[in-house]
Amino acid sequence: MTQSRGYAAQSATTPLAPYQFQRRDPKGRDVVVEIMYCGVCHSDIHSARNEWKNAVYPMVPGHEIIGRVTAVGSEVTRFKVGELVGVGVIVDSCRSCPSCKAGEEQYCDNGATLTYGVTDRHGDITYGGYSNNIVVDEHFVLKVSEKLNPAAVAPLLCAGITTYSPLRHWKVGPGMKVGIVGLGGLGHMALKFAHSFGAHTVQFTTSESKIEDAKRLGADEVVISKDANAMKKQASSFDFILDTVSAPHDINALLQLLKRDATYAQVGLPDTPPTLFMGDLIFKRRNMSGSIIGGMAETQEMLDYCAEKGIVSEIEMTSIDKINEAFERVVKADVKYRFVIDMATLK
Ligand SMILES: [Zn+2]
Ligand SMILES: [Zn+2]
């Protein structure tokens, strides 16, 4: 077995604490990664605290992983020892269903294997990136350019691809007016991508203190969504809106801002169903949709695009012994815009 050290939650109500565990010995197609950095995603907190009611303990969270390859199995063809790599939200899928065959492994009809907190196809519980190493099939390992700050690349593995994929799927580009709802870990990446793709980009936020930041990160306009007059001025003018907010909010007021036939895509997952007024869809044939991360090929495309364009996440570094404080600050939205754990602090 592969010896590992990390930080785990032992129950929904206990803070994360040091934990020793084992991962499988690398098989033929496995890559062993020594973890350098891991981003702190809001999902890590929902999961560690069992807010989605499906937690498996002990839980080692973390699915925005950057590290270096320290060993490869005999059948590995794409990676060599020493390479900089990333691991994101999923580490396996069935590889044979229509979604997997289409390169959309995240929608695997038999269930993609999450990087932490589930039983994998070997029968082991998966443990995430708040740890010193990870063993992953090479199909689910990404190549990372040496050109960018690797710590700031880590959040691209979840926050980045979660926003890149829907913006690409709905073909956001020049000549389009695109709204981004929420300016947090996901929202700030959505803003950077929509701006980079050449769209006229409008940031929606409830907080006036974020106006300057939004402009710096690429917003052509910023709308305070609590300001009814400001919202009215934007009516029926958007080609696409990407909503990154998981807290309860008025989706109907935002739907009314879409043009006829335009699409509203949700990537923030509220834990209670929102109230939707169907008239807002019916009277202008608007579309309501959703999206989750991206397939492995698209995730690689996103990382390559970011290396070419110099796009990374805005991060605040933290150490593993401060992870419980970091969780509290994420819950209060008190981070610009993503915590990244320097895993050297685990030693
Ligand atoms: Zn995530
Ligand atoms: Zn599948």
Automatic annotation (TrEMBL):
It holds the Pfam family ADH_zinc_N. GO terms for molecular function: alcohol dehydrogenase (NADP+) activity; zinc ion binding. Residues 11-341 form the Enoyl reductase (ER) domain. Gene3D superfamilies: Medium-chain alcohol dehydrogenases, catalytic domain, NAD(P)-binding Rossmann-like Domain. The keyword GTP-binding does not apply. It comes from the Bacteria. Its cofactor is Zn(2+). Keywords: Metal-binding, Oxidoreductase, Zinc. InterPro entries: ADH-like_C, ADH-like_N, ADH_Zn_CS, CAD-like, D-isomer_DH_CS1, ER, GroES-like_sf, NAD(P)-bd_dom_sf. Belongs to the zinc-containing alcohol dehydrogenase family. This is Oxidoreductase, zinc-binding dehydrogenase family. It comes from Acidobacterium capsulatum (strain ATCC 51196 / DSM 11244 / BCRC 80197 / JCM 7670 / NBRC 15755 / NCIMB 13165 / 161).
